[in-house]
Amino acid sequence: MSVTTQTAAGAIDRAEPLVDLKGMWIGLAVLNGFYLVVRIYEQIYGWRAGLDSFAPEFQTYWMSILWTEIPLELISGIGLAGWLWKTRVRDMSALTPRQELRAVADNAAWLVVYAAAIYWGASFFTEQDGTWHMTVIRDTDFTPSHIIEFYMSYPIYSILAVGCFFHAKTRIPYFSKGYSLAYLIVSIGPFMIIPNVGLNEWGHTFWFMEELFVAPLHWGFVFFGWMALGVFGVVLQLLINIHRVIGKEGVELLTEA
């Protein structure tokens, strides 16, 4: 590379913002807006068309969502992982400190959107499902609440977990050298709630557990859900990378500011 080309590349690098949160705000707006629409849909059609799984309207308003969302989620997850891998940084040693810091900031933004998705799936819709269980005696495993909770919100946060992990793995030198235990826990742990759904539904089939939320078959939801706390380890690793790049003097400047 010529001196002129290096100078031009350096100028472009410095011109780009170090922290760009536009993508994060767009992601949060899309995610929250989508779930607000979903919640309104539930309010309208949950009682009107969601109480009898043998009714034609149940197939129209609820099972059609189930058969649509599952293939879309599979395609989206594979597509996102493939795109992140295809556009990966081929030579980590060629990254400038500014590019590395930008990648760390972008990964933190990914984690914020993932955290919002975890809230909707593992908290809001999960607690909503508990309310539904105490209100309605179901006649199928595919209740309106489950179709949104288990088969929509859980896969969505799992797809975002794939994005967080692969982004770090393909763009940040520290994570490219091996596998971060904290990142594996925070991304794979909550995903394991989905296999636990199968165990849970099997238990509901053989035992009456509609209001028994402390039953052992429900423990997996808590165990895997709390693995999201591994995010503190991930954030610590991101901060370690920032310290390594900017040095002691940079940290002192930041703390003074």
Automatic annotation (TrEMBL):
The chain crosses the membrane at residues 23-41, 61-85, 108-126, 146-168, 180-199, 219-240. It is an enzyme of class 1 (oxidoreductase). It holds the Pfam family AmoC. GO terms for molecular function: ammonia monooxygenase activity. Keywords: Membrane, Monooxygenase, Oxidoreductase, Transmembrane, Transmembrane helix. It comes from the Bacteria. Its EC number is 1.14.99.39. This is Bacterial ammonia monooxygenase, subunit AmoC.
